[in-house]
Amino acid sequence: MTNRERILRTFRCEPVDRLPFLCEFGPWQETLVRWESEGMTPAWNWRDGLGLDPAPLLVPVELGFYPPFPEEILEDRGDRVLRRNRHGAVEERLKDASSPPRPISYPIRTREDWDRLRERLDPDSPGRLPAHLDELAADLATGDRVTRIGKYPYGFFGTLREWMGVEAFLIACLDDPEWVLEMMAT
User: Fold this and answer.
1) pLDDT, tens only, 1-51
2) Among the listed residues 145, 130, 143, 175, the one whose alpha carbon sits nearest the alpha carbon of residue 20
3) CB neighbours (10 Å) of residue 171?
4) Which residues, at least 6 apart from 146, have a Cβ–Cβ distance to it below 8 Å?
5) Residue 93 in 3-state DSSP?
6) Are 144 and 54 contacting, i.e. CB atoms less than 8 angstroms apart?
7) How far apart are CA 129 and CA 61, in angstroms?
8) Under 8 Å CB-to-CB from 33, ≥6 apart: which residues?
9) Cα 82 to Cα 74: distance, rounded to the nearest angstrom
10) How far is Cα 8 from Cα 37, in angstroms, rounded to an integer?
11) pTM attached to this predicted model
12) pLDDT of residue 153
């Protein structure tokens, strides 16, 4: 069974020879440095070495706000920076490490924020699709690789979590489910 067949059958709840073994993001840079200090050679491919299935090919479609927000440093805090990310959230990040950022604020707090930002979700925005999409689609149709359409954020939960934060999103699910359904439909 090919990797593509295995993943498609898994999504359809059909029998497979084994479950897919994927790693979406991979080890942090600090992890690779530590592995090298412990004897890993730079030529060692961690995906192959850990027995992972091939990573999905990414078709770089912009699924989130487009154009993205300009990434900018808002404040230098010594070993940390306060920055706005491409999704419009403000976060505190360590300067010299790849740990997860600490969220400070999110672009959607109110319906007014949503009304103002939803124009950034126009599927026909120039630049949202890669210029070579037809060539890419023809190439993917002949291969056996798994394909993922779109850049992060993606998915119903992950996208709204990035726009609102977990707490505000879950509260909106209870307090204003029609609004949540509107955002998901958009």
Assistant:
1) 988 899 889 999 999 999 999 887 788 888 888 999 999 987 888 888 888
2) 145
3) 12
4) 3, 4, 7, 54, 56, 57
5) strand
6) no
7) 5
8) none
9) 5
10) 39
11) 0.79
12) 61
